[in-house]
Amino acid sequence: MTSWKRWLRPANRSRALFVAGALTPVMLLFFVFFILPITASVVLAFYRYSPLDPDSPFIGVRNFLNLVSDPVFRKAVRNTFYFVLAAVPVNLLITLPIAIGLDGVRRRWLRDSLRAVYFLPTVAPIVAAAVIWAYLYQPVNGLLNAFIGHLGIPRILWLTSAKWAMPSVIVMSLWQDIGYNIVIFLAGLEAIPSVFYEAAKIDGAGRWHLFRNITFPLLSRTSSFVLVMTMISYLQVFAQMQVMTNGGPHDSTRVLALFIYDSAFRYNQMGYASAAAVILLGVTLLLTLLALWLTRRMSQWEY
Amino acid sequence: MKTRRSVSVLLLLSLLVASVLTGCGGKTKPAEGTPPSQAQKVKLTLWQHDNPDFNEATQKAIDKFKEQNPNIEVDVQTFPYDVYIQKIKAAFAANTEPDILQIFGTWVPDYSSQGFLDAVPDSLMAQKDDFYPAALGAYTWQGKLYGLPHEYNLENGGMLVHPAMFQAANLSYPKTWDELVADAKKLTKRDSQGITQAGFIFTSTDNITYSLLSFILQQGGDYWNADKTGVKLSSPEATKAWNAMLDLVLVDKVEDPKLIPPTGDEDISDYFFKGQAAMAYRGPWTIANGLHQYNLKDFEYAPVPPFAGDKPYFAAESGWGETVSARSKNKEAAWKLVGYLTGDAALDWNVRSFTVPARKGVAANPKFVEATGPMMKTSLGVLDFGRWIGPLRDRDQFFDIINRHFMAAADKLETREASLKAAETEINAMLAEKSK
């Protein structure tokens, strides 16, 4: 008997009903707030649509062709990749050592306190954090330039020069975000049985060998998860760009999500924005699959 | 006995039915002379953006209106400026808009052209000639009026000045454009890191465009083509204006746009009020900010000399005003309130918000001049030289394009000619796309 027909047997029917009942609300929410909007967005990408305009003609792939020839869109794609390729590796390089350091803290109360401290920025609303950092970065009245001025370093135009704007926003994003990955890595580290370390130490393994041969392989699934989730999140970065730089100066921080927002809500070009959103969705999907494929080999270790 | 009881029951029932039927009866106009408190209760919803001076002025006016019309309740809802425009668009798309929207004039055509706004009733149209044409421009669609403005949105004609800085430099307020540039250079202070006090700041997201357009008009030129379907920014007048503005940054070096953060709550006027600029080219609405938010009294609002000629011609958007939804179920009451806010309450509204009046009668009223003092005099003196900016189609894109290319030229990422040409090309492409 095929597997699904088993559920029709009287003995299994009540369980099937329970499962269906339990899943229906969440599937309904998923359908209404996820599937439907994405489908609508994909459809709108082929129309010249404005919510206030009753005339919204079908224009085929013209939105996509216009995007390809739009220099601002091309710059937004480049900026998005700049942000992801810079911020994701730095994020992992910061969070993993911190998590390893925290895992080595013997006193539980101290470890928990430090974990909370690192996680605090993650809890803060991103917009509020971006506003505060924008004040810190102010060229004339900002705290950072006041500090480096005392060290004899010339004023840096953190958010108003094309050279510094993106790195400045990356620093803010990392400050706000590392707590989350530290907690995930810490959970992964705590799950590695200590017997492996004990056995290795008996054989005379040093710290680097412990990390390379035990910690890193057995943390591979956690690392894969962190890499993929961080990449997806950073591909959609928006709030800090809008608050701190609004895409400037000279579109040097205009990322795809901000481009989509401006096209849809400032310029009333919903169809155009939807086409850009479809492209972002496709890029995110491709990169996610690529990341999963690349890390699959690394994630073969189990315990 | 039985018969008497039946008759009593019948009478009682008849009375009950009669009273119920009376209660369910259709709307009847109150009899002549019926006090308003006995008229039908109406609840209006009014949306406004978050501007403390505007909000206080509107609330005071509504409080007085409610005293005269106790049957009309007004629910005022306030939204941050950054989300207000999206809120309005979403509301109209979802049929959840309020009865009255306090709206920026340039946004009105987006809604009036689609039939979302109610036309101004004849009872209020009689007052139309008392409004400045520039203030009414964007509220007009195909010959009909779709709202009434509170203010004459003015970003030209005057500038914030620190008299103490002029006195310290032994200067008087400039009377010509050349004097302004010379004074600005003398008032600019620097240290090893750059400008510490700008002589003249004007590079706000609004004023770059307003300056360009006013400089073109003052030379006797125009920025629109003949039928206002496109702009011409390659004219000699536009080129001269563009170069003069870039010279202020690159040659005269009286301000550094990089020192002003691109976003946040701060405007170039905030830099002025913090003492970091001697002159700031900003509209008179910033005066209220200095008086009430910074509690400053030691600044003035002086005339900006024309760039060319002797007439300070300028282009103005239609400012904030009141509109009524075409789908409002309480249009009569809504227009009554709007008529009051922009009519009887206009003087107090403009005084409290320190805005230039949209009505000629208010601008000429000695009470307004006395209440606002000498700082408003500068703006009142130029009102007749303004004209409506024109059908921008998409105000944000129009201004963004000019700002982006100006900043690129100021940072030498584009040549002056290329930046102006690119701005013209992109604006015309946007206008063509939006008019499809």
Structure description:
The complex is a heterodimer of chains A (303) and B (436). By secondary structure, chain A is mostly helical. Chain A has one domain (65-300): Orthogonal Bundle (MetI-like fold), CATH 1.10.3720. Chain A is 74% helix and 0% strand. Chain B has 19 helices and 14 strands. Chain B has helices spanning 2-23, 52-68, 81-94, 108-112, 122-125, 133-136, 163-168, 177-187, 207-218, 236-250, 268-273, 285-293, 331-341, 346-353, 360-364, 366-372, 374-380, 395-410, 416-434; strands spanning 42-49, 72-79, 100-104, 140-141, 144-145, 148-149, 158-161, 189-191, 194-201, 277-280, 300-303, 314-316, 320-324, 386-388. In chain B, the strands form 4 sheets. Chain B has a 5-stranded mixed beta sheet. In chain B, strands 8-9-10-7-11 form a 5-stranded mixed beta sheet. Chain B is globular, with a radius of gyration of 26 Å. In chain B, 47% of the residues are buried. The interface between A and B is medium-sized, with 34 and 33 residues.
